[in-house]
Design goal:
Alpha-D-Glucose-1,6-Bisphosphate, Chain A, domain 4, alpha+beta, 7 strands, seven-stranded antiparallel sheet, 168 residues
Length: 168
Protein backbone atom coordinates (compact mmCIF):
# COMPACT_ATOMS: atom_id res chain seq x y z
CA UNK A 1 0.00 0.00 0.00
CA UNK A 2 1.23 3.49 -0.82
CA UNK A 3 1.29 6.12 1.95
CA UNK A 4 1.95 9.84 1.55
CA UNK A 5 1.54 11.95 4.68
CA UNK A 6 2.44 15.64 4.68
CA UNK A 7 2.32 18.36 7.31
CA UNK A 8 3.22 22.00 6.73
CA UNK A 9 3.28 25.08 8.91
CA UNK A 10 4.01 28.68 8.02
CA UNK A 11 6.18 30.41 10.61
CA UNK A 12 6.21 34.23 10.58
CA UNK A 13 9.98 34.44 10.91
CA UNK A 14 12.92 34.59 8.50
CA UNK A 15 14.47 31.25 7.55
CA UNK A 16 17.71 32.20 9.30
CA UNK A 17 15.93 32.22 12.67
CA UNK A 18 14.03 28.98 12.10
CA UNK A 19 17.20 27.29 10.80
CA UNK A 20 18.91 27.98 14.13
CA UNK A 21 16.28 25.74 15.76
CA UNK A 22 16.86 23.05 13.13
CA UNK A 23 20.51 22.84 14.20
CA UNK A 24 19.41 21.61 17.66
CA UNK A 25 17.47 18.58 16.35
CA UNK A 26 18.28 15.36 18.25
CA UNK A 27 20.56 17.16 20.74
CA UNK A 28 20.17 17.69 24.49
CA UNK A 29 18.87 21.18 23.75
CA UNK A 30 16.47 20.10 20.99
CA UNK A 31 14.16 23.03 20.18
CA UNK A 32 12.15 21.20 17.50
CA UNK A 33 11.33 17.68 18.66
CA UNK A 34 8.62 17.56 21.38
CA UNK A 35 10.66 15.22 23.60
CA UNK A 36 8.87 16.57 26.68
CA UNK A 37 5.81 14.50 25.75
CA UNK A 38 7.10 11.98 23.17
CA UNK A 39 10.07 9.61 22.91
CA UNK A 40 13.16 11.66 22.11
CA UNK A 41 14.84 11.49 18.71
CA UNK A 42 18.30 10.01 19.25
CA UNK A 43 21.36 9.37 17.10
CA UNK A 44 24.44 7.93 18.80
CA UNK A 45 26.85 9.87 16.59
CA UNK A 46 24.75 12.93 15.79
CA UNK A 47 23.10 14.06 12.60
CA UNK A 48 25.29 12.75 9.80
CA UNK A 49 24.51 10.82 6.63
CA UNK A 50 24.61 7.09 7.35
CA UNK A 51 23.90 7.35 11.08
CA UNK A 52 21.11 5.18 12.49
CA UNK A 53 18.72 6.29 15.18
CA UNK A 54 15.08 7.01 15.74
CA UNK A 55 12.44 7.68 18.37
CA UNK A 56 10.57 5.11 20.39
CA UNK A 57 10.14 1.97 18.28
CA UNK A 58 10.56 3.85 14.98
CA UNK A 59 14.08 3.37 13.56
CA UNK A 60 15.69 5.01 10.56
CA UNK A 61 18.97 6.02 8.95
CA UNK A 62 19.93 9.46 7.68
CA UNK A 63 20.22 9.38 3.89
CA UNK A 64 20.35 13.12 3.08
CA UNK A 65 21.28 16.09 5.25
CA UNK A 66 21.68 19.81 4.55
CA UNK A 67 22.20 21.59 7.90
CA UNK A 68 19.63 24.31 8.46
CA UNK A 69 17.57 23.20 5.45
CA UNK A 70 16.52 19.56 5.33
CA UNK A 71 17.07 16.06 6.61
CA UNK A 72 15.78 12.85 5.05
CA UNK A 73 15.53 9.46 6.75
CA UNK A 74 14.97 5.95 5.42
CA UNK A 75 12.81 3.69 7.59
CA UNK A 76 14.46 0.64 9.18
CA UNK A 77 11.60 -0.26 11.54
CA UNK A 78 8.81 -1.04 11.99
CA UNK A 79 8.82 -4.02 9.68
CA UNK A 80 6.63 -3.41 6.67
CA UNK A 81 7.55 0.29 6.24
CA UNK A 82 9.55 0.84 3.03
CA UNK A 83 10.29 4.46 2.32
CA UNK A 84 11.36 7.79 3.73
CA UNK A 85 10.39 10.70 5.88
CA UNK A 86 11.81 14.16 5.57
CA UNK A 87 11.87 17.48 7.44
CA UNK A 88 12.36 20.60 5.27
CA UNK A 89 12.69 24.28 6.11
CA UNK A 90 12.13 26.67 3.18
CA UNK A 91 11.98 30.44 2.92
CA UNK A 92 8.62 31.68 1.63
CA UNK A 93 9.51 35.37 1.88
CA UNK A 94 11.97 37.56 3.79
CA UNK A 95 9.78 37.28 6.89
CA UNK A 96 8.18 33.83 6.64
CA UNK A 97 9.34 30.24 6.52
CA UNK A 98 7.55 27.00 5.79
CA UNK A 99 8.39 23.87 7.73
CA UNK A 100 7.30 20.61 6.16
CA UNK A 101 7.39 16.98 7.21
CA UNK A 102 6.59 14.33 4.64
CA UNK A 103 6.39 10.55 4.68
CA UNK A 104 6.53 8.68 1.37
CA UNK A 105 6.45 4.93 1.74
CA UNK A 106 5.01 1.65 0.66
CA UNK A 107 3.86 -0.78 3.28
CA UNK A 108 3.21 -4.45 3.61
CA UNK A 109 -0.36 -5.37 4.56
CA UNK A 110 0.73 -5.74 8.19
CA UNK A 111 2.55 -2.37 8.01
CA UNK A 112 -0.51 -0.70 6.52
CA UNK A 113 -2.78 -2.01 9.26
CA UNK A 114 -0.29 -0.75 11.86
CA UNK A 115 -0.18 2.62 10.06
CA UNK A 116 -3.94 3.17 9.79
CA UNK A 117 -4.83 1.95 13.26
CA UNK A 118 -2.03 3.40 15.39
CA UNK A 119 1.07 4.99 13.93
CA UNK A 120 -0.61 7.52 11.65
CA UNK A 121 -2.62 8.96 14.51
CA UNK A 122 0.35 9.17 16.85
CA UNK A 123 2.62 10.45 14.09
CA UNK A 124 0.22 13.25 13.12
CA UNK A 125 -0.09 14.37 16.74
CA UNK A 126 3.68 14.24 17.28
CA UNK A 127 4.42 16.31 14.17
CA UNK A 128 1.81 18.94 15.08
CA UNK A 129 3.35 19.10 18.57
CA UNK A 130 6.79 19.57 16.97
CA UNK A 131 5.48 22.35 14.77
CA UNK A 132 3.84 23.97 17.82
CA UNK A 133 7.20 23.80 19.60
CA UNK A 134 8.92 25.54 16.69
CA UNK A 135 6.25 28.21 16.40
CA UNK A 136 6.17 28.78 20.17
CA UNK A 137 9.82 29.86 20.06
CA UNK A 138 8.54 33.04 18.38
CA UNK A 139 5.15 33.63 20.08
CA UNK A 140 4.29 35.42 23.31
CA UNK A 141 1.47 32.94 24.04
CA UNK A 142 2.09 29.24 23.52
CA UNK A 143 0.11 27.40 20.88
CA UNK A 144 -0.99 23.85 21.70
CA UNK A 145 -2.72 21.56 19.22
CA UNK A 146 -5.27 19.33 20.95
CA UNK A 147 -5.09 15.58 20.51
CA UNK A 148 -8.01 13.46 19.39
CA UNK A 149 -9.69 10.99 21.71
CA UNK A 150 -8.01 8.11 19.80
CA UNK A 151 -4.53 9.63 20.25
CA UNK A 152 -5.15 10.11 23.98
CA UNK A 153 -6.25 6.45 24.26
CA UNK A 154 -3.23 5.14 22.33
CA UNK A 155 -0.84 7.24 24.40
CA UNK A 156 -2.46 6.04 27.62
CA UNK A 157 -2.07 2.39 26.58
CA UNK A 158 1.55 2.97 25.56
CA UNK A 159 2.39 4.72 28.85
CA UNK A 160 0.86 1.84 30.86
CA UNK A 161 2.89 -0.71 28.89
CA UNK A 162 6.02 1.36 29.41
CA UNK A 163 5.49 1.62 33.18
CA UNK A 164 4.87 -2.13 33.46
CA UNK A 165 8.07 -2.82 31.51
CA UNK A 166 10.08 -0.60 33.88
CA UNK A 167 8.66 -2.39 36.96
CA UNK A 168 9.86 -5.80 35.81
Amino acid sequence: MKVINQHTRLIDQPKAFVSQLFDTLATKNDRIWPKENWPAMKFKDGLQIGNNGGHGRIRYTIIEFEPGCRIKFKFLKPDGFYGTHELVIESVSEDSTEIRHEIRMKTSIKGYILWITMIRWLHDALIEDAFDKVENQFLSENKETSHSFWVRCLRSIYKRKLSKTKQV
